[in-house]
Amino acid sequence: MGVSALRTEHLSKRYGRLLALDDLTLDVAAGEVFGFLGPNGAGKSTTIRLLLGLARPTSGRAWIFDTDAADVAAAHNRLAYVPADVALWPQMTGAEVLDLLARIGPGTDTAYRDELIQRFALDVSKPAGTYSTGNRQKVALIAAFATRAPLLVLDEPTSGLDPLMELQFRQAVGVARDNGQTVFLSSHQLAEVEAVCDRVGILRAGELVEVASVAQLRRLQNTEVAATFTGTPPDLAGIHGVHDLHADGAATVRFTLSGSPAAALRALADADVATIVVREQSLEEIFLAYYGQNAR
Amino acid sequence: MIATTAAAAGPERVLRGLAVRQVRRGALVVTAVCAGMSALVVVGYHREALDPAALAALARNPAIRTLFGEPVALDQAGGFTVWRTGTVLAVLLGVWAMLAATRITRGEEGAGRWGLLLSGRITLAEAVRQHLGVLAVVPVLVGAATAAAMIAAGVDATGSLLHGTGLAAVGLFFVAVGGVTAQLFASRSAANGAAAAVLVVGLLTRMVGDGVPALAWLRWLSPFGLLALTRPFDSNRGLSVSVLAFAAVLLLALAGRLAARRDVGAAILATAGSRPARTALLGSVPAFAVRRTVRPLAAWSAGIGAYFLLLGLIARSMAEFLTGNPEFATMAAQAGFPALDTVEGYAATLFALLAVPVGVFVAVRLAAVAADENARRLTLLLAAPVTRVRLLAAEAAVAGCAALVLITEAGVAMWAGTAIVHAGLGAGEALAGAWNVVPVVLLCLGAAVLALGWAPRAVAAIGALPAAGGFLWQVLADSVDAPSWIRALSPFAHLAAVPATAPAWVAASVMAGIAAAGVVAGIIGYRRRDLCA
């Protein structure tokens, strides 16, 4: 792997008796769109607070492009951030907030900012006090995407956006990727992560349980197979890789397949298969499989 | 079954419980201070033989009346206590009442915590009424406790009860004022500003009404004037306090009505919809700190400027009166106002008062930083290449400079007032007197920064402690003839009477050193702790 945009080593954070983040070691390469998944309270926001130097780690360290994350004057010159819960000064208009953030931030492409204002359909002449949650989020998103900072840290950035705006968000992430920007996207909107991310990390109860590309993650998981037969279905019980086998009427069987499908395919080939549907699990199902039994 | 039980308790009861939780601590402190101070001043009162002619002269003197209110029944412990503590306690109770009213209504609503509350069976108007209703009980308790403490300390029951009722009515009035401004304005700070303007205008109106006989009727328009018009321990008149209580009840009803007419999160006075961007002072963190300070600074300087102009205008009359009636100079000294018989001494004594509002201003400005952090408004700033130390240094420096502006302005206003009446106070002397309080203000700044680093929830209280707490401490110590080491705990005991005497440079340096230590310790804490962002 080349340059790391974001790196942590044995990062832990304890709040009293609660271990909010347990020994997180993570490396996000420059130019990648990384999804950071986990249910509420898993430690996603804690991780981001540590990365931004807003909270101090109990142990471990974090780097932004090889700058210690605690050195915010240097580290923040190379990142832009969208918080999960955007709070603005109520008397300032959207334009004033964007102006402030551009002037103290790491440098802003104002032409692109104006384009983003159009695309996100934000009325920047209104005081922030009149904005809905989604509109406040748009202000932070526009400010972050317009910076062209090499790293964008986005904490559940679309929780208040409608589907149309979510589409704009995905496009903006695409533009950022094309510009070579790194995106660290914390989310529990799995469709969004699936649509935009190259790799995902899954956090559970403060521990990183999986880091993989979306494709790898799918491969690790089961494939659902449903087959109908013109004659009698073959007996698939005991064949390598076949689980959860059950018959759906006289001519249909359903099962899940893990590992190599070779043995199962051989068994199916010997029978008269009328139709076969093979479905990869969605990220949502993979996610639920991680959390389903012992969520937190 | 649990749900049924909770519902059976009734939403109003639950609301009242919520309101009680939010005000009980402050209510206890205010009650203890009001009752405790009144009782201590009663106990510490020394009867002095004052001849009736001198008392009559005192009661007629416009300067005395402007500054302290009309002196009534000073030959009794009760009358002296009311004269000495009445205005201070009424202001304290009024300020607390209005701040608490806006905090538990508009503050909670603005923070979004009422959205969930009002999704239930409770209407907005009902929530406002229940919260103000609970808060309205506090001034009654304060008044009752004060009256009980004074009676227990050995003064006449009628006067004590009337004074307690008066205090309660003032408190109730400001609960109502805060309740109404919270409906009028969409932000808590605007509501606080409007309520504070009512308080300051009320105070100045009382001063003018007391000082200028032709305008004596003005006192009927001010809550503090109405309080004074009850004349406890003298003629014990109940009419004015009834007027005040009636006005408070009307305003409370108005607050409920206004709440019923608006949407949740909105205000009666709608903020303008769209407007062009004003991009001045957005270029850097210090500039942004200036931008957020300009408006509060303008409001505070209007109040402080008017007050010190008025003090300047009465300087000559006061000094002349005390030179002619030396027994009152002694009495004023016992009340914590020594050397009033020269214009310089008068200026020095009154400039010491300046430390209280300016110290509170500094504390409030840094408390605003804590509030911005708590509301997560600082998050986007701190995600920019801005270190915490730079942010805090900018905010503290801007608050400090704004305080210097206020102090200088007070000096100029006092000088202008004395110049109009030809009292003979030099501009340099006036400025020196005003600048003399800088060490106390620095102590407030140090305490506030310290609190921001280590106790961010208590920035306003800890920051105001050296000035407001120190002032009350000195008043108490003077009133009860406390030993000198007790007096020395207040920073005011270490201020020289500039311009009457030379500045106490050593004491000033020590205070500045303590303040600097507070700033350094606060910055260390602020760097180390987790931010609420």
UniProtKB/TrEMBL annotation, chain A:
It is a peripheral membrane protein. SMART domains: AAA (SM00382). Belongs to the ABC transporter superfamily. It holds the Pfam family ABC_tran. It comes from Micromonospora parastrephiae. This is ABC transporter ATP-binding protein. It comes from the Bacteria. Keywords: Antibiotic resistance, ATP-binding, Nucleotide-binding, Transport. The keyword ATP-binding applies. PROSITE patterns: ABC_TRANSPORTER_2.
